[in-house]
Amino acid sequence: MAEGSEKSSRRAQDQQRSREIQQQEIKDVLGKIKHKFLVMSGKGGVGKTSVSVNIAIAMANKGYKVGIMDVDLHGPDVPRMLGLDGMIGASENQKLAPIPYSDTLKAVSIESLMPNKDDAVIWRGPLKHSAISQFISDVDWGELDFLIVDSPPGTGDEPLSVAQTITDCRPIIVTTPQEVALWDIRKSINFCKKIERELFGLVENMSGYVCPHCGKTVELFGTGGGEKTAKEFGINFLGRIPFDPNLVKAGDSGSSFQDAYRDSEAAKAFDGIAGHLVKLMGK
User: Fold this and answer.
1) How would you label 150-173 residue by residue, b for 16+ Cβ within 10 Å and e otherwise?
2) What is the spatial distance between Cα 164 and Cα 174, in angstroms, rounded to a whole number?
3) CA 91/CA 194 separation, integer angstroms
4) The domain spanning residue 161 has which CATH number?
5) How many domains does the chain have?
6) Has residue 251 been placed in a domain?
7) In terms of Cα–Cα distance, which of 219, 217, 233, 148 is closest to 182?
């Protein structure tokens, strides 16, 4: 009985020590990253990952060192949108090495750890939290100006784990202009209030479509709802992005929309949002 109790006590001490080591590693990693953003959405289908990827590319194109971390464990799309393939390797200090997209942008995703990209990740909350903590503590990000964390839609385990682990992350909400999406972002706003994170800003995606034939703007999902909601709640409105079919093509093919369609209104909008973020952070 006493022997079993002693083993249980030692195991608890070892687990506590492991947590303390990981917490210190997380602190060391995050200390090298100047600004962290958690990109969220109230519902799926609003183009949150496309916004995350293209803002990251736009910032990297300005010469800033950027990392993008995909914590959508069940539907990780960041590597495919960036055209990244292969497994994550090891750095010189035996930590995980992010996959480079360019000299100024690198990425990490659960998909990059899986031999079979089509395997389903069937995890409950504690496993998700552990995986996200390891994403941060075990990855050698190095010195970064910005870290963009792309989370799944809603207010579940993943955004909560990120907020608890990266305590100085700044949430950004992506929405579309229609009312049903705006109803859902109020839940994300309340989520930020409950976890005591000040919401940094809001992006309105799919805000109108410019006809390539006549040049007329068609409001597919309405317009202005995101900006109106931002003003209502006193949130930074970071900008609106028009719908562009070429953005879908670029994401599906893993090519850079920013480079291939740099003169498009959508590419200019991403560049403007990236510049707005840089300005707000005082860079």
Assistant:
1) bbbbbbebbbbbbbebbeebbbbb
2) 21
3) 37
4) 3.40.50.300
5) 1
6) yes
7) 233
Buried b (16+ CB within 10 A) or exposed e, 207-229: bbbeeeeeeeeeeebbbebbbeb
Q: What is residue 80's predicted lDDT score, i.e. its pLDDT?
A: 87
**Which residues fall within 8 angstroms of residue 242, CB to CB, at 6 or more apart?**
206, 207, 208, 209, 210, 217, 265, 266, 269
DSSP letter for 142, please.
-
Q: Which candidate, 173, 28, 49, 27, places its Cα nearest to that of 111?
A: 49
Domain assignment present for residue 217? The answer is yes
90: β partners: 96
- For residue 194 the two structure tokens come to 């409950």
For residue 138, which phi and psi values (nearest 5 degrees)? -100, 0
Q: Which of 109, 280, 283 is nearest to 198 (CA)?
A: 280
pLDDT tens for the chain, residues 1 to 283:
556 677 777 777 777 887 788 788 888 889 999 999 999 988 888 899 999 999 999 999 999 999 999 988 777 889 889 988 766 766 667 788 899 999 999 999 877 666 555 665 655 667 778 888 887 888 889 999 999 999 988 777 888 889 889 999 999 999 988 776 677 788 888 888 888 888 899 999 998 887 777 767 777 776 777 888 888 888 899 999 998 989 989 988 888 898 889 889 899 999 999 999 999 887 6
| Token digits of residue 9 | 């006590």
Question: pTM score, two decimals?
Answer: 0.87
| 264: DSSP letter | S
Q: Is 177 helix (H, G, I), strand (E, B) or coil?
A: coil
Does residue 133 fall inside a structural domain?
Answer: yes
And the tokens for 36? Answer: 């962290």
